[in-house]
Design goal:
Length: 113
């Protein structure tokens, strides 16, 4: 979190600073870390972000996953759930949940049949 503050020197000059503070307990944790869904099902892995800001879920192609579509993110407090509906083989790969200081990965292995 950014916390701006001013320092007054000899009652004439004002210097402004913005500092970035990180909690020592900041973490990004995904449960489960591996998913092996069957074709045409829905998976819902959760990412809990503690002590830092949530940035987003990213797919195997590196693109940020939005709030609508077959793949989307639901939010409840500090838990960010990735929803993938009608899973198919093309959904397989490494997904990442990012906070502003750390990230965690999820491996999705979808059988071809």
């Amino acid at each position: 979190m950014y916390k701006p503050f001013d320092i007054v020197v000899a009652s004439t000059a004002v210097c402004s600073f913005t500092c970035l503070f990180f909690s020592p307990e900041s973490a990004v944790v995904i449960t489960p870390t591996v998913a092996s869904p069957t074709k045409d099902t829905t998976i819902r892995p959760s990412c809990t972000v503690t002590g830092e800001a949530f940035v987003g879920w990213y797919g195997p192609d590196g693109r940020k996953i939005g709030l609508v579509g077959r793949k989307y993110v639901e939010t409840k407090g500090n838990i960010y759930t990735l929803v993938i509906k009608d899973v198919n083989a093309k959904d397989g790969g490494t997904y990442e949940c990012h906070g502003n200081a750390s990230a965690a990965t999820l491996e999705v292995d979808v059988p071809c049949k």
